[in-house]
Design goal:
single chain; 336 residues; alpha/beta; five-stranded parallel β-sheet
């Protein structure tokens, strides 16, 4: 896992250099076709990458992105009307039968299908209308790291070209260097409070929400710690009641229009008795975790997750766990 985390800057450089043309062509096609909606098909870490993409498309392109549970097709065998829509499947392996089935149903229902994959020669890849490669190379550790970041970069690239955001397109060239610096950020100050906590939340909003979801998943997978992910708004609608008695929150602050909401939530969590750590701008009542400042705000969540991965891998080892092969998990999970 650590070796693959360290490969993240190189993978991203490969995407910027070799994948840009592919991502540009897909973006141009989406712009020409002007779909009325997008539907996502993903599980696990890939589903968190789709959450990142959802906010990109909805805020910058202006069309809705919805998630459909694969069981609707694989178990319930429902027929779905996808006319004027696009289905986008995101998967490291492209091997799960339920993803394949939903992709088939979407195509039968009139959708064009796109697959963002690391293993492009896979059941999902062979059946997709278009394939966008992650270019992450073989990933051996059970917990996805470099492939997750690669999926974010591929999806962000498509959104940047689709929206013709030249500032973001230019900023992508600096991302490999930003990620190399992010891997040197030391979050060890959070290690003891996290391990001593009865439970913890990972919190963000907007473009950072998928990163919070991924962080909670990795804490479960690699450290066997109970962590739940919430929006900075949603956590106030009930879950904040748990924020006391050895409770920790890790908050990802985007540096965008969600700052006011996130700051308010941090203050409320701290006042309730939680120990709060913030990746991003310092907020009163919270401990600031060091982060890299990027030339574009949308690169910030990607750098946050790279820093978090170094923290989670080291924490897993300190707890006596095996981050490369967590118990009860497999690299390729096939669900029906």
């Amino acid at each position: 896992m650590l070796r693959e985390i360290r490969e993240i800057p190189v993978v991203t450089e490969r995407q910027v250099r070799d994948g840009g043309r592919i991502y540009l062509e897909e973006a141009r096609r989406l712009k020409r076709e002007a779909p009325r909606f997008l539907v996502s098909c993903a599980r696990g870490s890939s589903d968190h990458a789709v959450t990142f993409f959802k906010y990109l498309v909805e805020t910058r392109i202006g069309i809705p992105v919805a998630s459909v549970g694969p069981s609707v097709a694989s178990i319930y065998r429902a027929k779905l009307d996808f006319r004027d829509g696009v289905l986008i499947t995101v998967s490291q392996s492209g091997g799960s039968p339920d993803l394949v089935r939903l992709q088939e149903r979407a195509s039968e229902g009139g959708a064009r299908t796109i697959a963002v994959l690391n293993v492009t020669d896979s059941p999902v890849g062979r059946a997709a209308g278009a394939v966008l490669p992650m270019l992450a190379g073989p990933e051996k550790a059970v917990a996805a790291t470099k492939s997750f970041v690669a999926s974010l970069v591929a999806l962000l690239s498509v959104a940047a070209y689709w929206s013709e955001d030249h500032a973001l397109i230019d900023a992508l060239a600096s991302l490999p260097d930003n990620l190399a610096k992010a891997l040197d950020c030391d979050w060890s100050a959070a290690a003891f409070p996290v391990t001593a906590a009865h439970s913890l939340y990972t919190i963000a909003r907007g473009h950072g929400l998928g990163i919070a979801g991924e962080a909670a998943l990795k804490l479960k997978e690699t450290c066997r710690l109970h962590a739940e992910s919430y929006s900075a708004a949603e956590v106030l609608h009930g879950p904040i009641a748990l924020a006391r008695d050895r409770f920790v929150a890790i908050v990802f602050s985007n540096g965008d229009d969600t700052e006011g909401s996130i700051s308010d939530t941090v203050r409320r969590l701290a006042a309730a008795g939680a120990r709060v750590f913030v990746a991003g701008r310092p907020i009163a009542g919270a401990h600031a975790l060091p982060v890299v400042t990027t030339p574009h705000v949308l690169l910030q969540p990607i750098c946050h997750v790279a820093s978090f991965y170094r923290f989670a891998e080291a924490l897993s080892i300190s707890l006596g766990e095996n981050p490369d092969a967590p118990i009860l998990l497999k690299k390729v999970t096939e669900t029906t």
